[in-house]
Write a structure and sequence with these properties.
The protein is an alpha+beta fold. The protein has 6 helices and 30 strands.
């Protein structure tokens, strides 16, 4: 009886010792998706330490990380993850390293990821058979402990409540619910500074349904839409971050918009387009703005008119100083003629710099489309090339 008891105790101690084994990833091998201690033929079970974040199957977290930047108003976490991926790819280090539970060679249990050399946890998550599974908490990478997100995953998919926090971790700026990776129920977005409700959307099976509303920070109603079968009806207004430039003033009917919409806007000094729509197609004036060569601002580059989705009438191109560079005439989408520096240069065979530059711009638009934006540094390079050929 005593011998049986001792043997049982010894087996129990060995089992406990095995469960508590710790393996540094630098001393691990991965074969056929299973983790082994170097030189061992038995899949590892225990605590795996210092595994680079980039080596873990964490792609499902990307959706939440992106939301911390868009809804949370702070890109520190997304930029840190991107920098981590680049560093790992270039072999220049692993800013994030993780400790994770492993069972029979598979990630299975709690995991914590920290900035290398720090005690500050950035990701607190769990795995089940190599998939993100369980509660996930994300923190600001500055090490001050501000919570940025809380979510629950099942089999690698969002399932349950999701909360995105402001950069200081004090305000829930996005609250939503998911079922098997698809939006379900009401999603609310709040301003990261004031906490005021700025958007409310309803989801079913990942598709918008019912009411969608948005407000400015001061409570002014901007959007009031009703979604049915994937189509929206109602009004939509949108402004830039300053609240001064209107980016959209639309009325929707059965999924088709009428009104004004700005596209390609990335800030007050970047180029963009202003379109007018009728029943979902271009109809009315279209203005294209380009960034100035010295990056000091923008200027009107092109003015044209659409009728029922086709360019009709005079298309005018402008220089940075506001003077007309050239014009073209269209009839119901068909080119008729052109006038101005481009035509004069072609007729005389002249190779002056302005006409040369216009030709390069026209050729670029011909290849990539009339709405293609041209960066200031590209324009400067073209201008220098044209001057060199004079």
């Amino acid at each position: 009886m005593q011998r049986f008891t001792n043997a049982t105790m010894l087996a129990s101690l060995l089992l406990l010792a095995g469960c508590g084994d710790t393996l540094d990833f630098r001393n691990a091998e991965v074969s056929n998706g299973a983790i082994y201690a170097a030189g061992s033929n038995t899949p590892f079970s225990g605590n795996l330490t210092n595994i680079p974040y980039a080596r873990l199957p964490v792609a499902p977290l990307g959706r939440v990380i992106k939301m911390t930047a868009t809804a949370g108003g702070d890109q520190a976490l997304s930029e840190a993850v991107l920098g981590n991926a680049v560093a790992a790819m270039l072999g220049s280090g692993n800013p994030f390293v993780c400790d994770v539970k492993v069972s029979d060679g598979a990630l299975d249990g709690a995991a914590k990821c920290k900035i290398n050399g720090s005690k500050s946890v950035v990701f607190d998550l769990a795995f089940k058979q190599n998939q993100v599974d369980g509660d996930v908490v994300m923190f600001h990478p500055d090490g001050k402990g501000a919570k940025r997100a809380e979510a629950t995953f099942v089999d690698g998919k969002l399932h349950g409540a999701l909360k995105i926090y402001s950069a200081d971790g004090k305000i829930v700026v996005n609250s939503a619910n998911f079922e098997h990776g698809l939006g379900e129920g009401t999603e609310e977005i709040r301003h990261p500074r004031s906490g005021s409700l700025i958007r409310q959307v309803n989801w079913s099976g990942g598709k918008q349904i019912g009411k969608e509303k948005s407000w400015s920070e001061d409570g002014t109603l901007l959007t009031d839409l009703e979604w049915n079968d994937g189509k929206q009806n109602g009004i939509q207004k949108q402004y830039d971050d300053t609240g001064k430039l209107m980016l959209a003033d639309l009325t929707w009917k059965n999924g088709k918009a009428t009104g004004m919409q700005v596209t390609g806007y990335h800030g007050p000094k970047s180029g963009y387009h202003v379109y007018h729509l009728k029943d979902g197609i271009n109809h009315g004036e279209h203005r294209a703005y380009l960034e100035k060569r010295d990056a000091s601002g923008i200027y009107l580059d092109k003015l044209e008119t659409f009728v029922d989705g086709k360019v009709d009438g005079t298309v005018t191109y402008y220089k940075e100083d506001g003077s007309v560079s050239s014009t073209e005439t269209y009839a119901h989408g068909n080119w008729v003629s052109n006038q101005g520096e481009q035509r004069q240069a072609a007729e005389s065979g002249a190779n002056d710099a302005p006409a040369c530059l216009d030709k390069k711009i026209a050729a670029y638009r011909g290849e990539f489309g009339e709405d293609a934006m041209i960066k200031a540094d590209v324009l400067s390079e073209w201008e220098a090339d044209c001057k060199a050929k004079q």
